[in-house]
C-alpha cells in the first residue's frame, strides 16, 4: 500500500497548479485566457446596395404570402 501512496504524491507534485485548488471560481477574470471580441453590428450600410439583401427580402415576402395568405 505504501508504494501506491508514494506514486500518488509524486504524481500530484509532478504538474504544478497555476492557482490553488478550489480558487478557480473566485477569480476575477472567470479563468478565461482570451478576450471576448466586440459584438458584431446588426447590419452594415454596404448591405443595402447589394442584390442579395433585396433577394432575401423578396424571398421572405413570398414565403409569408404562401404560408399565411394562400392556405386560407
How would you describe this protein?
It contains 2 helices and no strands. The chain is mostly helical. The chain is 44% helix and 0% strand.
Give a brief rundown of this model.
With 72 residues, the chain is mainly α. It has helices at 2-14, 51-69.
- Name the average pLDDT: 75
Compute the CA-based radius of gyration.
Answer: 29 Å
The total count of strands amounts to 0
**Global morphology:** elongated
Q: What are the low-pLDDT stretches, counting only 5+ consecutive residues below 50?
A: none
**Number of DSSP helical runs:** 2
Structural class: mainly alpha
Amino- and carboxy-terminal Cα gap = 79 Å
Q: What is the chain-wise order of helices and strands?
A: HH
Share of residues in helices: 40-55%
Oligomer: single chain
Query: How much strand?
Result: under 5%
Largest sheet: none
Amino acid at each position: 500500500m505504501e508504494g501506491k501512496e508514494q506514486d500518488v504524491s509524486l504524481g500530484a507534485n509532478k504538474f504544478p497548479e497555476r492557482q490553488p485548488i478550489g480558487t478557480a471560481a473566485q477569480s476575477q477574470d472567470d479563468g478565461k485566457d482570451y478576450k471576448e471580441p466586440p459584438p458584431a453590428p446588426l447590419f452594415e450600410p454596404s448591405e443595402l446596395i447589394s442584390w442579395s439583401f433585396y433577394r432575401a427580402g423578396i424571398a421572405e415576402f413570398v414565403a409569408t404570402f404562401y404560408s399565411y395568405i394562400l392556405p386560407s
